[in-house]
Amino acid sequence: MKRTIGLTAMLLAGALTIPATQAQSEKPGVEKLYILNCGEGTAGDISRWSPGINEGKSMDFVDSCYLIKHAQGWFLWDTGIPDAVAAMPDGLKPADPKAVSWKRPKTLAAQLDQLGVKPSDIKAMAVSHTHPDHIGNVEMFPAAMLYVQKAEYEWPGANNQARFKAEHPVTKLEGDRDVFGDGSVTILSTPGHTPGHQSLLVKLPKTGTVVLSGDAVHFRDNWDNRRVLAMNADKEQTAASMQKIADMLTKEKAQLWINHDKAQRDGQKMSPEFYD
Ligand SMILES: [Zn+2]
After folding, report:
1. Which residue positions in the chain have pLDDT lower than 70?
2. Which residues have CB atoms below 5 A from the ion given as ligand 1?
């Protein structure tokens, strides 16, 4: 009996401390997350993403950008295919016919406008990596602080060109970064696809925790089978990064949202609808 009372008292004490803790902490950081259409395309041969497997099979791809409303301001993850592609009737044809030919059914600018968000409202941004289907509109936000891994920033481009404009404000990272200092938006270093590839962990108040893949993996089948793209900068790093994401999903009871996976995205709410 005495033991039961003791336990009840402990539970009550515990229950009473919870509201006090909540009162001390800030409001939940992330309020909303919008998925924006940042391109649609068709891959000529998906064995490009898994050598020897799925030879000759084509697949529709999507390209997503994610706009996050945090109590401290707007944060944009990835910028997609350049808006200029919207005006090209045949879209962007790749040099390698196995790769993705991209179209831009909607511009990023128009989707932001629909939400009443001006490009200058976006104070911070990050890109998963510097392939053209992710950095197409970085300079629509010339004053936004860009979070990028140092290894990606300093990775020489074609003809030794810089990957970003020197005048663009930048925070060069060497590993993970809690962007707002409250654990609600965390950049995860997931190198391999490119030298400084990164993914994003987002804690939503109702939806729960999601990890935005970037191109750590391109579609579900390759995730389930842990397949690594031959053209990746580093195969072993890619496998280690996939494991890091898998461990994070378990630890945070998180969902994985795969940027280019059309089947998954077809089941998701697109902007102006949102996740909270
Ligand atoms: Zn991509």
Report:
1. 1-28
2. 133, 215
